[in-house]
Amino acid sequence: MSKHTTVTPPESFVDLPPTPPPSSEPKQSDQVGNILKHLRLRKAGHSVAQPWTAFHLDSAGFQQLLAIIRADESLRSLFENEIRCDYFSTSSRFVLRMVTTIHESVRTSIVKEIERQLRGLGAGIGRAAEYARNVTYEGSPRLEFLADQDDQSGDRHDPDAVFGHADAKYPVAIIEVAFSQKAKELKYLADNYILGSNGNVRVVIGISIEYEGYEKGTRSKKEKQSRKAAFSIWRPQFVKDGDGEEVLEAVQNIEEQEFRDEQGNPVIGTGIKLQLKDFASKALFNDLDSLTQPISIPSSMLLGFISNAESRTHMVKEGGKEEALKPGTRKRRRQRTPQEDWWTEEAKQIVEDDIERAAKRTARADGDFVCSSPSAGEEN
């Protein structure tokens, strides 16, 4: 069993207004309460310091959290449209993500470059060109890998970026941009994406960045922050176990390949080297060996993406231009109507039913969703 990490909420939580509910509301676990406080902070427009905030949350607690969110219309809208999160069922780990300017800038630059090269391949003739035309960027959809059709206790993830094919059930390629906390979790994300999709996610690319100011409060003022940047690549691979049975693993083909060192200096390297077949499975294209067309991002280009994002972040925070309001100009905001009481009998029943179902699932072994890759049982 993985070692559980519990995050103590910031002191600002004590200033939040009390969460409704009447005494008839089922008792929340401490961690469910902490997560709801995080969500309400986000809803109120407060910035959360950490881009990657993890909680220990078992299956029953996860189901309770989802039920409470479903019963509160404003939280449901926030959770479905604005919040990125992850749930690792095998380690009972729930994570709230917070995107940053540099995170989004790097992600967007990588996506645009891959799109540009796919368009170039698709401009040709032949089956490979036709296939490339059907591979498209699909944003950051919520992915669910369930233990079975009736169980909601599997893994859920909101990846940074995915590429899909018009005929595919799962994304074919996933990109994650990570600062130091999330970077430690990339191998577990790769496991879940590849194993949860039965190997239909063909490649996972992880970009890890370390830089002062990305994770406020994670370093002391005296401690020098590394500026290292690196990438890793995972692909599915079938191997034979000791009994001769076939086992699917998420194999890390490229491990922490640096393109910027700890002092911020460029590191000469080949960069990200893919082929069109990294965006294809046999279910989508029967002759994978013919899809050798290169899709690559040199290390110098990756470094440029990060440097531009850093400059942009600096301008937003300190030196950016803006048009000032005329002296004496006032601002008129819309008035909110008092929020209706959401804790109805129907909402209460939804929560209680979900808690009961989750408790039954927790009581039985969930062997069908155990990751078979060696890294799945580890934790930093």
What keyword list fits this structure?
380 residues, alpha+beta, 6-stranded mixed beta sheet, 9 helices, 32% helix
Number of helices: 9
Structural shape:
globular
**Terminal Cα separation, in Å?**
12 Å
Q: Largest sheet, described in full?
A: 6 strands, mixed
Spans with pLDDT under 50 lasting ≥5 residues? 1-25, 214-222, 365-380
- The fraction of residues assigned to DSSP E strands is 15-25%
Number of extended strands? 13
SSE ordering = HEHHEEHHEEEEEHHEEEEEHH
- What is the alpha-carbon Rg in Å? 23 Å
Helix-and-strand structural type: alpha+beta
Structure write-up:
The chain is an alpha+beta fold. The chain contains 9 helices and 13 strands. It has helices at 30-43, 59-71, 73-81, 101-122, 127-133, 180-183, 186-196, 299-319, 345-363, and strands at residues 52-56, 84-88, 93-97, 135-137, 143-145, 155-157, 161-165, 173-178, 203-209, 229-240, 246-260, 272-275, 294-297. The strands form 3 sheets. A 6-stranded mixed β-sheet has the order 4-7-8-9-10-11. It has a 5-stranded antiparallel β-sheet with strand order 1-3-2-6-5, covered by helices on one side. It has a two-stranded antiparallel sheet with strand order 12-13. Helix 4 packs antiparallel against helix 5 (127-133). It is globular and about 60 Å long. The two termini are 12 Å apart. The relative contact order is 0.15. The model is unreliable at 1-25, 214-222 and 365-380 (pLDDT under 50).
